[in-house]
What we know:
Helix content is about 35%, strand content about 15%. By secondary structure, it is α/β, with parallel strands linked by helices. The strands form 4 sheets. It has a 6-stranded parallel β-sheet with strand order 4-1-5-6-7-8, sandwiched between helices. It starts with a strand and ends in a 12-residue tail after the last strand.
Amino acid sequence: MRILFVKPNMGLVRGRPYDDRGRMEPHTFAVLAAITPDGHEIHLCDDRCEPVPYRENWDLVGINTEVYTARRAYEIADRFRAAGTRVVLGGCHASMIPSEAADHADAVCIGEADEELWGALLEDAARGRLGPFYQSKAGFRREFARPRPQTGLFRGKPYLPIRLTQFSRGCTNVCEYCATGNIWKGAFQTRDPREVAEELANQDRKYIFFTDENIVADSHAAKALFRELIPLKLHWTGQASLKFAGDPELMDLMVRSGCAGLVVGFESRNPADLATMRKPSNLAYGSYDEVVERIRDAGIMLWAAFLLGYDDETESSIRETLDWALSKKFAFSAFNILTPYPGTALYDRLRAEGRLLYDGKWWLHDDYRFGHAAFRPARMSPERLSELGLEARLAHNSIYQIIRRATDPKTNCKDLRSLFTYFAYNPLFRAELLKKHAMMLGYRGRERGGISY
């Protein structure tokens, strides 16, 4: 079969498709290509940077669907199906709300599109008997293996010079707001550390990003991975809970294996809100001040993520969170408006309380804009929460603050490589957050000549 993979764009900025200069390789499709049996012809279209080839002949189109790209994914799917092309929708959003995705697809993949699921789907498609739903059983296994990702799929496309890979999938936490945690429901798997190291040793990039939800969820497995990475002399980043800050051996191995920085979800400084979001473990390793100093002493740059809008949030608490983040000179900080993703416990709670906006389906609503609140907060208006979130992002990413934060001798300017990385990505991050704020989701039918523009 002739198969097309599509990575959808998010939407429109001032009437034009969003041009994300910080785009990274869509790792999912390199994995799917690797587990696709021989005899199929595979192509990738990244809607973020190239036209969608509607006019070519395809036997099957597979589209990755996330909540912010769902509207655009459905637009692309509907157009292919109108021309008689079969479409498969997968990804986090399709897994969380498969009944909605099914209205725009011939088949929906629920959960991880692993070898078993993908092989069965392709066999059914080749025989003309594609079923409506394919559900992964990956969560029932403790380990998983995969062939080397087919990164040749990305050749010639404008991505950041960072190679993506995956060591683990799933998450041991089930936070109220988190889509991934609600899909995996506490299940967690890892690959053989030697398999990961061999994969990374046989590719040409020195900068690696681990797509794991929490690379340190299993400390024993993580330590084994980091020991395998030490000889490779790579520089890697990833996402981690604060668990590593309570384990000196783990932190030491992370640094020795080339950890350049981590995305860490601090979420809130209020213990009551952490309890509500089912993340009290954030405070299990000491106060935030103590934990941050330990991480800084290790020389690890941090991308600190905060969720603004939980029920005890006030205007003052948001400003205090901003001031605290500035005092720590984090390499980056993300001040995210709390978002009720469909299928999560948070979404169900807010719906039961009558607090959802945009008829509940904000991700498809004409009036919703990226970066805006999609629910009624307890202690302020949705509009005020949106304003405060933008104010925090603007303040943290002002030119003055970017330069001031660069002066941290323990992290951001501890060596030339760290300083280069800091100044390479901070202006990019600032430009992109300003550009996509208040973006319209989807293209709303604004395409020309049969292709995206």
